[in-house]
Amino acid ABC transporter permease
Amino acid sequence: MEQFGDLFTRSASHLEVLLQGAGVTVMITLGSFVMAVTIGLVLAVARTWKIRPLNALIAIYVEVFRGLPTLTLLFICYFGLTYVGIKLNPLPAAIIGLGLSGGAYCTEIFRSGISALHHGQREAAAAIGMTPMRAMRFVILPQALRITLPPLGNYAIGLIKDTAVASAVAAPEILFRARNLSTETFDTALIYLLVAVLYLVMTFPLARWVDHLEKKRKAWQ
C-alpha cells in the first residue's frame, strides 16, 4: 500500500506539470489549425480562378512546404528569421511553422473537396444569375466543406501529435515539460506513460468524431 501511495503522489505531482504543457499543446494546435485551414481555403479557392502564374505559385508553395520536414520549418522560423532581424518567441514560432506546413496539406484537402463536386453545380448557379464568387460562397463551398470535414479532422489529430516537435524550439508543451521532469526526477517511465495518456485523452474524442463524420458522409452519398 505504501508503494501505491508513493506512486499516486508522484503521478499527481508529475501530472500537475504535464497538464500545464498540455494547455500549451492545445494552444499550439488551435493556432496552427486555424492558420493552416485559412491558408488552405484561400489558396484552394484561388486555384479555381485559373490564373496560370497564381496557380504556379500556389503549386510551388504546396510542393515545397509538403516536402520540407516540419522540424526544419520550425528551426527556420525560430533561428533563421533572426538573420533578417525577426525574433520570434517559441510559441509563435511553433504556430507559424506548423501552420505553414499544414496550410500546404489543407490546400490539397480543400482542392479535392471542391474538385469532387460535379461541374453542373457551377453551371446551375450561373444559370440563375450568380456570379462565380457568389456561386463559390453559397453553392460550392458549403458542399465542399461537408466533404472535407473528415480529412480535416484527421489532420487535426495528426497536428496534436506533431506539436511534439515544438519542444525542439523550447516551446513549453507536453514533451518539453516531460523532458525537463525526467532530468529533474529520473522518473522517466512514469512521466512518459502519463504523457501517452494525455495525448490519448486529447486525440481519442476527436478520432471518434471523425469516425462519426465518415459514417455521415457515406450516408449522404
Observations:
- The CA atoms of residues 35 and 99 lie 5 Å apart.
- The longest helix spans residues 2-47.
- Residues 10-220 form a domain with the MetI-like fold fold (CATH 1.10.3720.10).
- The chain has one domain: 10-220.
